[in-house]
């Protein structure tokens, strides 16, 4: 991954086979309010960015005909429309024409790519435990992945229920009650056949200047992970 910036907006960029991925910072503002500043900095049309209503599950929105889709950059207005958002925690993008966005403020934004396209996943502990990584990887035949900034083991103290959910992954995913969420994702990715994994290894909770953190602040601010299939990819 590498840092990039445009017009005062800074992000982490990752290249996956046939796809591009970007993880925002606070410099783009809260993408839950509007994703337009981030999309425009990336050179994307904000109206071609798909958003779900995230519910910490493992369902995916499949975009088979992206050129027929239309989306609003005004996230708040879209949420107010009856039936405006699908309940899902990931996007599967099979062709160019639309980007998939997930919100995060401690949870992991994870992109996986392979011959079938790219999937952008919102991975909280519940979604990880429910199998969202395996579903996303299978949907695109994933060989490569990029893991964005998220809360680190340094700050993520959890209870017995959460620790038990990942006990089968072996030693090293937790230190006492401090769960290493990125390591959980890495192990689940490898179990799903993903051999190449690029990880930001940045803790959102430790960096108030760079990232929103729900655990640290309890506020509504959110970062984004965005992925899209490159034209010709």
Could you explain how this protein is built, in words?
The structure is a single chain. Strand 1 and strand 2 form a beta hairpin. It is built from seven helices and 14 strands. With about 230 residues, the chain is an alpha+beta fold. A six-stranded mixed beta sheet has the order 1-2-3-14-7-4. It has a six-stranded mixed beta sheet with strand order 5-6-9-8-10-13. It has a two-stranded antiparallel ribbon with strand order 11-12. The chain has a single domain (about 1-150, about 195-230), classed as CNF1/YfiH-like putative cysteine hydrolases, CATH 3.60.140.10.
Rg over alpha carbons: 16 Å
Unreliable stretches: 67-74, 76-83
User: So what's the oligomer here?
Assistant: single chain
- CATH homolog superfamily: CNF1/YfiH-like putative cysteine hydrolases
Secondary structure tally, helices: 7
From the N-terminal CA to the C-terminal CA, the straight-line distance is 19 Å
Secondary structure class reads alpha+beta
Strand order of the largest sheet: 1-2-3-14-7-4
CATH architecture verdict: 4-Layer Sandwich
Could you say how many structural domains there are in total? Answer: 1
Largest sheet report: 6 strands, mixed
> Helical residue percent?
10-25%
CATH names the topology as CNF1/YfiH-like putative cysteine hydrolases
Instruction: Kindly estimate the percentage of residues that lie in beta strands according to DSSP.
Output: 25-35%
Q: CATH top level?
A: Alpha Beta
Query: Mean pLDDT, as a whole number?
Result: 91
Give a count of the beta strands, DSSP E runs of length 2 or more.
14
Shape type: globular
Order of H and E elements: EEEHEEHEEEEHHEHEEHEHE
């Amino acid at each position: 991954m590498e840092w990039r910036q445009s017009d005062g907006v800074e992000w982490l960029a990752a290249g996956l086979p046939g796809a591009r991925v970007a993880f925002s910072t606070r410099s783009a503002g809260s993408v839950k309010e509007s994703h337009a500043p981030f999309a425009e900095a990336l050179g994307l049309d904000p109206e071609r960015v798909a958003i779900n209503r995230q519910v910490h599950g493992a369902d995916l929105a499949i975009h088979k005909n992206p050129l027929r889709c239309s989306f609003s950059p005004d996230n708040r207005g879209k949420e107010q429309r009856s039936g405006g958002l699908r309940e899902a925690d990931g996007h599967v993008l099979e062709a160019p024409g639309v980007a998939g966005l997930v919100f995060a403020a401690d949870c992991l934004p994870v992109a996986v790519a392979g011959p079938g396209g790219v999937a952008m996943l919102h991975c909280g502990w519940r979604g990880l435990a429910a199998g969202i990584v395996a579903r996303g990887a299978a949907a695109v035949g994933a060989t490569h992945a990029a893991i964005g900034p998220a809360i680190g083991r340094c700050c993520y103290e959890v209870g017995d229920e959460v620790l038990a959910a990942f006990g089968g992954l072996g030693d090293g995913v937790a230190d006492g009650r401090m769960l290493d969420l990125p390591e959980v994702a890495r192990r689940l990715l490898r179990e799903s056949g993903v051999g190449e994994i690029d990880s930001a290894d940045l803790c959102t909770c430790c960096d108030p200047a760079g990232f929103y953190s729900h655990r640290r602040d309890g506020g509504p601010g959110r970062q984004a992970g965005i992925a899209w299939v490159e034209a010709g990819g």
